[in-house]
Amino acid sequence: MTPLVLVHGFGTSRHIWRRVLGEVEALVVDLPGFGDAAYAGRAGQTVEDMAQALTDMLREVGEGPYRVAAHSMGGKVALLLAARNPELVSELFLIAPSPPTPEPMDPEGRAKLRAAHGNRDALNAQYHGVTVQPIPEQDFAQLVQDGLRASHDAWTAWPDVGSREDISGELDGLNLPITVLFSEDDPAISPDTIRSEVLARFPQAKAVAIHGSGHLIPLEQPEAVISLLQAEEERP
């Protein structure tokens, strides 16, 4: 069975997958600046920096190639990982991914995101603002805790640097199965952005659209993620 790795998005950690684990077997990682890797965050951190750190982790484990499921910011990181290391990635599952092109975000939105670091009230507002389904209290508390302990440098680097990067020029030769799971009701990364900046760039990609979830699909509708990963796992 091809091993599976789960990659979190901006501001969160491997705990974003807590409602998925138990139903699927996977390696979960923390990107530099977040979760247990908060110490590794640095000023001006780029998508390339995160992709290289993920590459190093997977090479150290040495069980690839991997099926890679990645949420939000992690989706952009996973795309660059796969483009630069095709021998490490056999399949991609992009869940509400940040696009490979600059993420549409107005200056006010970037400023609010930047200012939320280390601010419990702002983090509460941020996560309530990007969700549609209620998240269990323990899981919501973990989201806030992850936001409080994240590296300030890595946190601010995403709205200022990583989300603005255009890595699309490196993806032209990407040739592997890609599935994109997204919500029609996502208030953070719109379905129009997913269609125009992700799906339109990968004609081989399979689109799986759901309703009734916000941006945090692994916590809001974990059954959609589990169903997708289990179905692909069982595919001959």
TrEMBL record:
Keywords: Hydrolase. This is Alpha/beta hydrolase. InterPro entries: AB_hydrolase_1, AB_hydrolase_fold, Carboxylesterase_BioH. Residues 4-226 form the AB hydrolase-1 domain. GO terms for molecular function: hydrolase activity. It comes from the Bacteria.
